[in-house]
Amino acid sequence: MSTQVPEQVEEESSADAEQQSAAQQSRMEKKRQNAAARESQEQAEAEEKASSEEDTYLLKVFRYDPEVAGKQEPRFDDFHVPYHKGMTVLDALMYARDHYDSSLTFRHSCRQAICGSDAMFVNGRQRLSCKTQLSDLEEPVRVEPLPHQEVVKDLVVDMEHFYDQMEAVEPYFQTNDLPEGEQLQSRENREKIKMSTRCIWCGACMSSCNIAAGDNQYLGPAAINKAYRFTMDEREGEEMKQHRLEILEQEHGVWRCQTQFSCTEVCPKDIPLTEHIQELKREAVKNNLKFW
Predict the structure, then answer these.
(1) 107 C-beta neighbours (distance < 10 Å), count
(2) Residue 271 to residue 264: CA distance in whole angstroms
(3) pLDDT at 47
(4) Which CATH architecture is the domain 160-176+185-288 placed in?
(5) Which residue intervals are annotated with compositional bias (Low complexity) in the record (predicted)?
(6) pLDDT of residue 40
């Protein structure tokens, strides 16, 4: 038989009810906190996704592979590349190759605008891809091989003809009159030819030249600039200077240039190519002047 009085039973029942109510409120509060945390996490993920979508660049890349069935017809592939500050076109291409398609083919080497191997046609202009910032370009970024060159695969073109034209002007120092001691060059002469020595053989100028596109025998701005570098060097003998001018005066030499300045505009080293060609024209005229 219970010894509790009715008042005690009533108080204990009230205390149990209050504990149950407090526990329920605690559970509800915890649920609300969990719901708020999930909502906050979902919002953060949505913002991160939106941010990620904003920080990507769309690349439309020329593709062509004559050795693989189904890829022999030229096309463009799209690549959405995550962007980071300072990213270049070459960086984006390397990301696309490493993360999306390992068969994507292009040339690159030093990544410091020195080797000249990664010249491409980007958004309608010849550029070094390692020097070109994505942030300076409008989307979509359209990347193609250099025009007026035979495409080997994707963004790689055959440079053999370009190298042949460069070699045609004999791009090395020659003289028949070596001094007994050190062969010095004046500061003024060095300054005169300084810009012409910056050529990195990228082929961008040749690709931009309408004359070279229509005349396969035209020496082209790069080769003529290389000839300028040696013709104007005071250390080269008169006999060799005469020889170079004869090479430049040929039918497909300096006189084929129509002074369109397209080569100068696209040169990644800011070489005044058109001015050098015009100066060599003047030298050719003086070389042929005779007074009786």
Answers:
(1) 18
(2) 7
(3) 45
(4) Orthogonal Bundle (1.10)
(5) 16-26
(6) 66
Give the span between the Cα atoms of 153 and 140, in whole angstroms.
22
Predicted pLDDT of residue 164: 96
Mean pLDDT along residues 227-249: 91
Mean pLDDT of 40-57: 62
DSSP 112: S
Break the chain into its structural domains and give their ranges.
Answer: 56-157, 160-176+185-288
Q: Are 90 and 122 in contact (CB under 8 A)?
A: no
**What mean pLDDT value characterizes the chain?**
88
Written as one letter, the residue type at 76 is: F
Global confidence as pTM = 0.77
220 touches 165 (CB < 8 A): yes
- C-beta of residue 106 within 8 angstroms of C-beta of residue 115: no
Q: E strand or H helix at 96, and its extent? A: helix 89-99
Q: What is the pLDDT of residues 119-131, one digit of tens each?
A: 999 999 999 999 9
- pLDDT tier, 14 (very low <50, low <70, confident <90, very high otherwise): low
Task: Find the mean pLDDT for residues 163-169.
Answer: 96
CATH topology of domain 56-157: Ubiquitin-like (UB roll) (3.10.20)
User: CA 83 to CA 86: how far, in whole Å?
Assistant: 9
**Exposure class string for 49-86: b at 16+ Cβ within 10 A, else e:** eeeeeeeebebbbbbbbeeeeeeeeeeeeebebebeee
Distant-in-sequence, close-in-space partners of 120: CB < 8 Å, separation ≥ 6: 89, 106, 126, 127, 128, 129, 143, 144, 145, 146, 155
